[in-house]
Amino acid sequence: MEHITLLIGIVIVTALVFDFTNGFHDTANAMATTISTGALKPKVAVAMSAVLNLVGAFLSVEVAKTISGGIIDESAGIRPEVIFAGLVGAIVWNLLTWLAGLPSSSSHALFGGLIGATVVSVGFDAVNADKVVMKVLIPAVAAPIVAGLAAWCATRLTYRLARGRDERDTAKGYRAGQIASAALVSLAHGTNDAQKTMGVITLALVAGGVVAPHSDPPLWVIVSAGLAIALGTYLGGWRIIQTLGKGLTDIKPAQGFAAQTGAATVILASSHIGFALSTTQVCSGSIMGAGLGRKGGVVRWSTAGRMVMAWGLTLPAAGLVAGGAALLADQGDWGVAAVAVLGLAVSAAIWLASRRKPVTHDDLDSRDAVAGAEPAGVVTQALQAVAPPPAGPLTAAVSPSPEAGRAPAAAAAS
After folding, report:
1. Which of 16, 156, 200, 351 has a CA positioned 20 to 30 A from the CA of residue 126?
2. Phi and psi of 208, rounded to 5°?
3. Closest C-alpha among 120, 123, 132, 122 to residue 321
């Protein structure tokens, strides 16, 4: 019993580490467009997002119940070692995609890790395939499409309603709207992603006989998961913020407001009905929709293609890593220790690799942060030839500032 208690403690700590990585991996979901348009300074944006992620963790437990008693059969003999292996697979994939600056799904990394470890240790019968299809795979495909269409419609409507209005007035108003909608996305992220870690910890407690099957997460689990994701959010995943904020499309204040409002609506609705969707995919889809919604807008399709490829690889890749970890963990205490050591070694190697070319909030504060952004592709250029950017209001990303005033001169000198 002491061994089980110690192992459950290790699983809980590992789950909170995953929650922490989820926080800095997914900060971009709420704050990338707000930062890129200058509505908020980077550090202020992530601080606000962290607080609202914490608040959101207390609003619902429906997604947590989907994890703890949905995709994995609690009565199939799931042991803490299996959950530990699944978490290691999810953490490793999260860190790899963070290093690459790709906004992949932390949620699908977790699902893939749990499914891969369960299949290796227990078998396919322990996975509720119907729940995986209905509450994971279908939302994974539908949610970014729905969010993208909503953002596209909202962006088109926004530009139509603001036609003929003063550019400075509309930009200022939409920045205020962006702050409000970013706060809503952060709150929604807490209601969805923080709950996934709550569900994993609850599953570990059930597997160890600490709580009864189908129990709601205890209060201390809710508090610890909320704090872990809030801390990770505050540290800021600057690499992924850079990709979503400027690497995918050039977002103007009106587009940012439309994208964030559409994403928050989809996430909150999904949390209410217990769909454990990927907030990353929803927000990425809404940003692409907003990019297409502005006449002459730029969407960098090769970046989008790499993102979609990462989305497709996340479940199987995390599952393979977790399956290998589960195979090793099944060998006994030395196997669990080996998985822990290997996981720490890989994580440390990824962190050291990131130090070779660090990305900080200072990079995002700079007006030249997008100087190295990928140019528009052939598809975007063709669309712009048919529908060139409007010359009227809302075409400027930011209102006039000393830095902006110097931009034309700098361009002329280059």
Report:
1. 16
2. -90, 0
3. 120
Closest C-alpha to 183, from 88, 47, 73, 309: 47
Cβ burial of 33 (10 Å; 0-12, 13-18, 19+) is buried
Instruction: Indicate the SS3 state at residue 170.
Output: helix
Q: Do 142 and 347 meet the contact criterion of CB atoms below 8 Å apart?
A: no
Residue 384: the pLDDT is 41
The DSSP line for 242-301 is HIIIIISB---HHHHHHHHHHHHHHHHHHHHHT----HHHHHHHHHHHHHHHSTT--B-H
Is-contact 233 46, C-beta < 8 A?
yes
Query: In whole angstroms, what is the distance from residue 191 CA to residue 10 CA?
Result: 25
Helix (H) or strand (E) holding 97: helix 80-99
Average pLDDT, the chain: 77
Mean pLDDT (whole number) for 102-121:
87
- Euclidean distance between CA atoms 186 and 158, whole angstroms: 23
Q: What are the tens digits of pLDDT across the range 131-164?
A: 888 877 888 888 888 888 988 988 888 888 877 7
pTM, entire model: 0.75
